Amino acid sequence: MSLSELANAYAKRFEHNGDPRNLDLTIKYCHEAVDIAPLKYGQDPTFLARIGDAYLQRYISRGNVEDLDLGIDYLRKAVEVSPKDFIHRFPAIGFLGRALTIRFELRKDRRDVEEAVIRTHQCMGVYSRGHPGRLIAFGDRGTALLNRYRSRNYPDVVQLKHVPEDSQKSPGHPSQALLRHPFPEGDDLESAIDDFRESLQLCPEGHPWHGRVLYNLADALLTRYEGSRRLIDQNNAQRYLESAQALLHKDDPILGMIFFASAREHLLRFESDYVDDAFSLYEKASTHRTLGTRQKLTGALSWVAAAEKYKHSSSLAAYKQTFILLDQQLNVVTDVLARHRIRKRLATNPTNAAACAINLGENDTAIELLEQGRGMLWMQLARLRTPIEDLRKLGPEEATLADRFEELSKVLDAGVTTIYRPISSEKSEDARERTANKHREVSERWEATVAEIRCIPGFTHFLQATPYSDLRDAAKEGPVVVFNINERRSDALVVSDAGAPYAIQLPHATPKTLASLSSHLSDVLAKTRAESDERYRTNQVVLVLRELWNVVIYPIVQYLLTSVQRKSRIWLCPTAELCSLPIHAAGQYRAKGTNLPDIFVCSYTPTLSALIRARQLPSDPEAPDITPAMLAIGESNDNVRGGETTLLSLSKEIEQLMDILPSHIPHRELLNTDATPEAVLQALHEHTWVHLACHGVQEPTQPFYSHFLLHGNSLRLLDVIQADLKHVKFAFTSACHTAVGDKNTSDEVIHLAAALQFAGFKSVVGTMWGMDDRDGPQITAEFYRAMFSEEKSMDHTEAANALNAAVKKMKKNKVSVDRRAVFIHIGA
Fold first, then answer.
1. Half-sphere exposure (Cβ direction) of 184: Cα atoms closer than 13 Å
2. Looking at the domain 617-827, which fold is it?
3. 3 state DSSP class of 499
4. What's the predicted TM-score (pTM) here?
5. What is the sign, positive or negative, of the torsion defined by CA atoms of 588, 589, 590, 595?
6. What is the third-level CATH fold of 468-610?
7. Which stretch, 322-336, 341-355, 555-569, has highest mean pLDDT?
8. Which domain of life is it from (predicted)?
């Protein structure tokens, strides 16, 4: 048997038993055949289509996106090398259209759906009446058209410029007609409905796909009803959904899609009798065991939006389920930036969820949801590893468990497709049963794997919100004030080490008010210089600090002073617009007035979990102990880049540090030409404290690429986290812009100073905006004098007190408030 015949035999076996290991062998022998005879097989459209379809089927079976991309590449090549009149070109075109539709549903890239419409249309002309391929072709084209209708913002004539040129050259190609006669938006929807109706005619009751076709037609009719309010469309959609639900096995993933569509249909009736039933359907769909994670998440977001619109009692449950599903999906997506993009799509959900919980008087739940939602990305980025990667490092058995979880999660995340596939000759009922059993088996194995992971110490709350009873450990050394700034309501939740959190409503701290303050502060800092515009700059910063005192801090201080002693430490955990405002320095700033730094010693924490880790995260037990030591890093940037100014006071700053550092503490200096990224990363592994004096550059659109400017190159946030530092405890980042929040995800604190904490540093001093170069030596001297007074040992937990003392000394020396408020402390 030749390699080609062997590959074909395994492909046939997969069609019979559905075992994806047959696809592995199909792909293996196909590649071997191409390697041996590239001219014969590498240019054979039928053979290339077989490889492409095998990759597509393996993606559907296992969920590896790389297989989907490879499948599309091979199918495109199969189409390209086919003679225009070659009959076998059409199956390749059909497979390609199908694959592009699946990828569009995954990535929402309109170029994919544009090409999918063209490819599926090309496939229609080859099948004569009565040919089973017509059912597939109608379904494929209907799905592509419906997707394009829902996504299109521009006429086809504009979007077609993204479609490969080879697909537009044929005189009979649909793009030629589109270029001459751009479709109105409604035509896609009408054509999709027509195609699904044709599918239904070819797929009578008793056919294995009958329920799936009914769902597709009902979905399209509901979409038309939303725009036209034609009652017949709603009635037909309702009838088709009910029929499909009665036909499908309870573990068929399409049933989950039907529940979502039925919920939508119920709410479109605008009758109160159906509202509760609609939200019951939303819950059933979002928790359906065999529906894909990605599809359940999309549906859960619809549930959230609808529940908020109708002020339904299920709102909180909808938020909880959304975060569970988001966490599951983030554990499957391996690319860090891709995880961040997922998170940005849900930017306001954590504060919305918390506001919902506070409205219901469930303050502890509000804290849990804020922590789960806001901290989700950071919890996985603590050392640029997901919890699964941490699990894998524990040992061989745990690694096997992690592999199994990832494999099953990818299958679930890939989800169900409404695309049709050729079927075997087995009975309709048997085919439905086999499909349902396959999905149920995957779901049961995934659930059992998750349960097994939760039995491992440290993974008790895997894929679950951490309970408030655990989170309040963050307040063992002082209260933590967690802010929730939201359009619905704004509150400060005071977390103590005993009892439920106390909510202080902040009626005037609206997102609009705080955004205006943040914008004004940014403009003032960007357009003025501390030296030449000092009076104006100081006055404007004081106005911001007074407003923060009035609308945010004053009611919190009033509450705290009833139970917390003055000069005690407190922690601030800001959200949304507060992330870019200096609430730690809020005050009246008048003679005999009250300012927050005079009442409490303030620190920040991005999340409660981050603060708990900063206090409790032990060093790697397998790593050898090292002697506490100081690393001083300085880069003046004499070769100025990106408009940054040379740090003229750097030498004096480092000299001040070395003069104050007790003689018994080992130290090392890496200055200017010695301060390369490679040298710094290596030295970080060998020291417990670091003083970093250089420029920092924030990248608002890609915060993980924010960086410190060192000699010859940059030290990125990713580099520091990936270094997996074992011994570090304290960092002083005497750099510009090291603590500026990401403007596109304002409820995530993703900046350089916080990154150092998540990289392993338990305590970090940073700057909230550009520090005046003149202040480097003074803040350094006053800070380390306070840290090492009376020959104190290297205690990173004293950093907040030392910074507070240093800033007060600057105030005594008549340093303006804008130059003092820039410094912040993060962590323990």
1. 3
2. Rossmann fold (3.40.50)
3. coil
4. 0.81
5. positive
6. Nucleotidyltransferase; domain 5 (3.30.420)
7. 555-569
8. Eukaryota
